[in-house]
Design a protein that fits this description.
heterotrimer, A mainly alpha (356), B alpha/beta (267), C mainly alpha (292), A: mainly alpha, ABC transporter involved in vitamin B12 uptake, BtuC, two-stranded antiparallel ribbon, 4 strands, globular, C: 292 residues, two-stranded antiparallel sheet
């Protein structure tokens, strides 16, 4: 048996391969397996339907957030259209399932592919534009997609939306919270695995190089346009895939949720979680979805108290305010997000009782 | 003698981005109403010294980590550039960056920022007195001015602030020899007529030592030599390494270069 | 023909308002290269400030105007101080994200306080301002917006051209280190640009409020239209912003009049994408010169 690896006190790496490993220690790998085991074989059995509902939403949001983080955090291209891409994914899955009669798994994956193409179309301006201008182009993309979703009635059903068939895999109906959670958790694990591996590949390094200095990256022989476009494609694929899952999960979709605010919600996730960090995207998704649930529970509770009967307290503006505040506070006080906080907590445990 | 000193750098160290140390214990004393020239090869730390004085290290992520800078007896190290310029220290940046979309006169008016917005007409007249060329071009956009005019604008802008201490960073950069001569004459006149103390950073050591009263030579972030300008001009090392005149007048050989390296180690 | 003329005049006046509000945007961009995504919220803040004073406090209209202007000036200062200043020197991405966060925050706050309903100002514009020109009628709002726009453009033009602070602001936009070396207080210039932007936004917010009524959602989408406007004109050109505003205003009204009313809202963005593809730095913008 090979020797177990523990964290050395210093940098003793001798090969690039060591720098590139996902898990620095065997403990890390063990925790990953334990987590995966819990997620796939324990949580779906123990969790109440409500817990599973929240967890499903978190996992779906996390997939989309990982996608956005690849674009913003790794490649440094700000996108304000991620919410719309999520919507494109949801609609493609719905249309493929209802009009073309594709099975569940295929239509979700194809939804990702369709969204990737749409995303790349809006990424074309990145050929000539720096991030300032590009951000504006994605903003335009958001509005144009929103408009198409509402007004291309023959395809999208307009404001009435589309009702999806129940998802089945190998003839099994997986529409219930519990059954669907397997699908979602499994996809989440696969998508995470893909993203982590992407980040340490040639492509991931090229993305980071483009983010840090695109001219210099070009000088190093990285074809800027191709890689930026690729980053857009991958990011939109994640969004579309998540959107497809979400469409099946909620059964009936309308254009309503896919607004600019959804895009901002995803931006909030990755800023709060940590830019340029896969685990950060997951933290951010957990944070935002939990905050969402807490806020809606809290407003419901207050409304039921009856003390504020005169005031119609709605959750939407409160959410908007709290998310905005969270973005602002994190940017000012901990720009590297929850992932950094987590790292600090972990290392302070590891190093306790000595400060270094 | 002590009252005579306007600016004193005591053993300062400057570090950029927390890791790159550029100045390693520099000490200077600048007397009032003198022109002091700072010589040295590229990367010796001349510009950094000026930035440390004018407070422009901060935007470059640099910091004075040790030592003190005293101006008229009070410490100014790591103060904000707004504060330092209000004390009367103005730096003319290397490469004389103009405000391209502003006219010449507007460029000059930016110079009034350091001393509030009281009437600037007199100062304008003063600048035009020294640089009559600018008066002709006052309505032109600075983006369309020639290199010499830009240098005049840069010095003129600084003059608008009525500085007590003027830091000139390579005014001769990229200018024709005749023009360099003209600019240096004007600098000298400003010093004599306005009583402005000037620190002059130059590659053109010959010119600089002709108008300067005193000089320092820097190498690798340290002061390696100092003295009256006339003495420096006669110093065989300075002559050889900065003025380009070999001691014997003969061609330099490889042996000489090696000797120079050895000699330099002694400095 | 009359229909055309009416659309033309409506488009022109709306476009003038866009131009006016774009002025605030360009100001911030020029001095600190920050894209302000909270632009619509600045419009709405000004409009609601005026609403509180005129409807709830019932102050005389002229006083309302003055107090709103002063209040928004202070507000801009405070926003810069509280939120933007801590990020000076950070990466531009973070600062832009910050304005996105600010936009969500302000929007939520205003929705919590004022709700999503339509509010209206009292009628205070004199009817005498409206122009009747054969079959074409120009309502007094449009005329007054035109006048206000002209006054503001004049005042700011004068400010930037001749006043010392205006020149300092332009110098910072041109070359920040050189401005710093001459003792220009760069942080104050940033604060000032936010304050002025808030004032300009408040002005256009009020006029938009008079025309369409005041609604948080509507005003914040209006604010986002500043992007097509400034992209069309080039991000850093004030003259371009004015022309861009007028073009977008006309385009919107003609699409709304001749093609379809629902397309009206997206047309600016379609144009925006096209412009970005064809002429990325806008019609008048300066191309970035980059070095590694």
């Amino acid at each position: 048996m090979r020797k177990l690896r523990f964290r050395p006190c210093g940098n003793f790496k001798e090969y690039y391969e060591q720098e590139l490993t996902i898990f620095e220690t065997d403990f890390g790998r063990m925790w990953m397996w334990i987590g995966l085991f819990l997620l796939l074989f324990v949580v779906p059995f123990v969790g109440s339907p409500y817990t599973l509902y929240v967890l499903n939403n978190i996992a779906i949001a996390a997939i989309a957030a990982i996608g956005l983080n690849i674009l913003i955090g790794y490649t440094g291209q700000i996108s304000l259209g991620h919410g719309a891409f999520f919507g494109v994914g949801a609609y493609s899955a719905a249309i493929l399932a209802t009009k073309a009669g594709f099975p569940f798994w295929l239509s979700v994956i194809l939804a990702g592919a369709v969204t990737a193409i749409v995303g790349m179309i809006f990424g074309i301006p990145s050929l000539r534009l720096k991030h300032l201008y590009l951000t504006i182009a994605t903003l335009a993309g958001q509005f144009i997609i929103e408009y198409v979703l509402v007004h291309w009635e023959s395809l999208t059903g307009g404001a009435e939306g589309i009702i999806l068939p129940e998802p089945t895999i190998f003839g099994l109906n997986v529409s219930a919270d519990r059954a669907f959670s397997w699908v979602v958790f499994f996809s989440f694990a696969v998508m995470c695995w893909m993203a982590v591996n992407l980040a340490r590949s040639r492509y991931g390094r090229a993305f980071v190089a483009i983010r840090d200095n695109d001219r210099a990256a070009e000088g190093m022989g990285i074809p800027l346009f191709r890689y930026k476009l690729l980053s857009f494609g991958i990011s939109s694929f994640y969004a579309g895939f998540a959107g497809g899952l979400w469409a099946y999960y909620t059964v009936s979709i309308t254009p309503e949720p896919f607004t600019l605010f959804l895009s901002i919600e995803y931006i909030a996730m990755i800023i709060i979680g940590g830019l340029g960090s896969i685990s950060g995207s997951v933290f951010g998704a957990v944070f935002i979805i939990m905050l969402n649930e807490i806020l809606s529970q809290a407003t419901q509770y207050i409304m039921n108290l009856g003390a504020f009967a005169g005031i119609a307290l709605t959750v939407a503006p409160l959410r908007e305010f709290v998310f905005g505040l969270a973005i602002v506070l994190f940017l000012i006080f901990e720009p590297r997000g929850l992932a950094e906080v987590w790292r600090i907590i972990r290392s302070s445990f590891r190093l306790w009782p000595f400060a270094y | 003698m002590k009252d005579d000193i306007l600016l004193q750098l005591n053993n300062i160290s400057v570090v950029y981005a927390d890791v790159i140390q550029i100045l390693k214990g520099v000490s200077l004393a600048i007397r009032k109403k003198q022109i002091v020239s700072l010589l040295g090869s590229n990367g010796a730390g001349k510009t950094t010294t000026l930035r440390a004085v004018s407070g422009l290290l901060k935007p470059e992520n640099g910091k004075v980590t040790e030592g003190t800078i005293e101006y008229e007896g009070r410490p100014i190290q790591n103060a904000a550039p707004e504060t330092i310029t209000r004390l009367g220290i103005i730096q003319v940046l290397e490469g004389r960056p103009p405000f391209e979309h502003l006219t010449v006169e507007e460029n000059l008016r930016v110079g009034t920022a350091a001393r509030g917005t009281r009437s600037y007409k007199e100062d304008l007249d003063l600048v035009y007195h020294y640089f009559p060329r600018l008066l002709e071009r006052r309505k032109a956009l600075a983006g369309y001015c020639s290199g010499g005019e830009l240098q005049m604008i840069a010095i003129g802008r600084a003059l608008m602030a009525r500085p007590k201490l003027l830091l000139l960073d390579e005014p001769s950069l990229g200018l024709a020899p005749l023009l360099v001569k003209e600019i240096f004459q004007i600098v000298k006149r400003i010093n004599e007529e306005q009583g402005t103390t000037i620190i002059l950073v130059e590659q053109n050591a010959n010119m600089a030592l002709q108008i300067a009263h005193y000089g320092y030579v820097m190498e690798n972030g340290k002061i390696v030599m100092e003295g009256e300008a006339s003495d420096l001009r006669e110093n065989p090392d300075v002559k050889e390494f900065y003025l380009g005149i070999a001691a014997s007048g003969a061609l330099k050989t490889y042996k000489d270069v090696k000797a120079y390296k050895r000699r330099k180690r002694w400095l | 023909m009359e229909f055309f003329a009416q659309l033309f005049i409506n488009g022109l006046s709306i476009g003038f308002l866009y131009a006016l509000s774009a002025l605030g945007f360009v100001m911030i961009f020029k001095s600190s290269s920050v894209l302000n995504f909270a632009h619509g919220e600045l419009l709405a803040l000004g409009a609601f400030f005026f609403l509180i004073l005129s409807v709830w406090a019932k102050l005389p209209i002229v006083l309302c105007f003055l107090v709103t202007l002063v209040g928004c000036f202070a507000l801009g200062f405070i926003i810069e101080r509280l939120f933007l200043r801590p990020l000076i020197g950070e990466a531009l991405i973070e600062v832009i994200m910050l304005t996105v966060g600010l936009s969500a925050m302000f929007k939520g706050l205003m929705l919590l306080i004022f709700g999503g309903n339509l509010h209206n100002y009292p009628d205070f514009l004199p009817e005498a301002l409206s122009i009747q020109w054969g079959a074409i009628s120009v309502p007094s709002v449009y005329v007054s917006s035109f006048i206000i726009g002209l006054i503001f453009l004049g005042v700011f033009g004068f400010f930037f051209k001749y006043s010392s602070h205006g020149i300092y602001m332009r110098s910072v936009a041109d070359h920040q280190p050189a401005a710093l070396s001459l003792g220009v207080n760069v942080r104050r210039v940033f604060a000032l640009s936010w304050a002025i932007a808030a004032v300009v936004c408040a002005m256009s917010g009020i006029v938009l409020g008079i025309i369409n009524g005041i609604n948080v959602h509507q005003l914040s989408t209006m604010g986002l239209k500043v992007f097509p406007v400034v992209i069309l004109g080039g991000l850093d050109s004030i003259g371009g912003a004015i022309l861009g505003g007028i073009i977008i205003g006309l385009l919107e009204n003609f699409t709304g009049g001749y093609i379809s009313t629902s397309l009206r809202e997206v047309v600016p963005y379609i144009v925006l994408v096209l412009i970005l593809l064809v002429k990325p730095y806008g019609l008048f913008g300066s191309e970035e010169i980059e070095r590694v």
